[in-house]
């Protein structure tokens, strides 16, 4: 009899572990704060809200893309210990990306990736992945602000920075940039490029600047009207600080992704584009560099 009771107890415990965890979500409140309708997945204990981008008319290689084909923004909420975790993917046109990114960062969310999902799409569609952990209502409210900004900037109401610059006619003073970045670069064909190496390990070997593990900035134009584009090589822990610094300086983020697999520590790459006075752009990059373990004074 005792053996039977013990077996029964073990079976009951196993069944309890296998059963879906009861989740106490205020789904109505999440929908209210996000402004989006959701569905609760009992098996995974996740509440997911979605916003189809039915306002977009996107063609890819002659195919009309519809929301079920990947043009749906979403955010999924899941309990984690005493907190709630949110993950999501925002469908954005190019002119919406940085305005929406700033809202996400200012609202306490993390931006974890920015890339394309299609080839040959017109207009070009970008996907911005977000995340966060904290109090359920705060996260839902932040996601709601992101969704609201997407709606506000749709229909060509976003930002497309433009400037007339020909590198062949560059006249900017590299010394002013050097003084801010704390690093000298090379002027070639009207482009002043500064490179700062970083190091990681892959296949048991050290991978450095020449192998592509570097942060760089390329300037062209004049002291008053310049463009800078480049790439940040950073650790995962540095990403959010760099994003905030760049966006705070009005520099646009155009991609966040990886260039390698299996490296240690993991290195994330961020591509950017900025327009403005050369010294102002350099100061924005300096602020971002100060959020990394790379002071900008390491060797190439």
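^ structure tokens above, recovered residues below v
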């Amino acid at each position: 009899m005792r053996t039977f009771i013990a077996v029964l107890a073990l079976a009951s415990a196993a069944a309890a572990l296998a059963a879906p965890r009861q989740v106490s979500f205020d789904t109505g409140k999440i929908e209210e704060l996000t402004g989006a309708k959701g569905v609760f997945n009992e098996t995974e204990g996740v509440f997911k809200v979605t916003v189809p981008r039915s306002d977009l008319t996107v063609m890819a290689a002659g195919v009309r893309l519809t929301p079920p084909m990947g043009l749906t923004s979403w955010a999924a909420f899941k309990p984690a210990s005493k907190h709630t975790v949110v993950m999501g993917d925002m469908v954005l046109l190019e002119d919406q990306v940085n305005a929406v990114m700033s809202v996400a960062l200012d609202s306490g969310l993390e931006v974890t990736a920015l890339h394309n999902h299609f080839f040959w799409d017109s207009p070009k569609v970008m996907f911005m992945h977000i995340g966060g952990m904290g109090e359920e209502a705060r996260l839902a409210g932040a996601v709601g602000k992101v969704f609201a900004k997407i709606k506000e900037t749709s229909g060509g109401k976003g930002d497309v920075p433009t400037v007339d610059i020909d590198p062949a006619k560059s006249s900017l003073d590299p010394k002013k940039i050097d003084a801010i970045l704390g690093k000298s670069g090379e002027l070639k064909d009207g482009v002043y490029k500064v490179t700062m190496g970083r190091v990681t390990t892959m296949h048991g070997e050290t991978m450095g600047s020449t192998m592509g593990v570097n942060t760089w900035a390329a300037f062209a134009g004049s002291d008053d009207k310049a463009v800078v584009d480049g790439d940040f090589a950073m650790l995962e822990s540095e990403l959010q600080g760099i994003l905030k610094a760049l966006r705070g300086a009005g520099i646009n983020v155009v991609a966040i992704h990886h260039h390698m697999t299996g490296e240690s520590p993991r290195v994330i790459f961020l591509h950017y584009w900025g327009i403005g006075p050369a010294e102002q752009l350099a100061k924005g990059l300096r602020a971002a560099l100060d959020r990394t373990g790379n002071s900008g004074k390491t060797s190439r």
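Confidence is low (pLDDT under 50) at residues 1-21, 295-300.
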